[in-house]
Design goal:
single chain; 88% helix
Length: 122
Amino acid sequence: MENNSSNLGMLLTDVYHYVNLRLNEFKLRTIDGLSSFLSLLFSALVCILLLNIALLFIFGAVAVWISVWIGSLPWALLITGGFFLLLALLLFVFRRKLITDRFVSALVQLFFEEKDNDDEND
């Protein structure tokens, strides 16, 4: 009888350790995924910021060029602004195909990728 209770105690201790190990693995995988995601997000935001600054100067030069061509800076700025509004409208209309689907698939790939060092028994 005492042997059975000691076996049961050892089994419960092993189960407790196994559950703790799996919980710690889950925490580490979550931290790994979140840190990768936040790193990717920060890099993307920096690239977008730099691209926006470059586009600001490029379209400023285009507005000045158009103003020389048509003879009016305010109209050139309105034409350039209208181009941006048209571009924003196109991005809004095609946002699911261009942005949302790619973002979701990138997140799924980031969080659910198979690791090479995983146990084959999982």
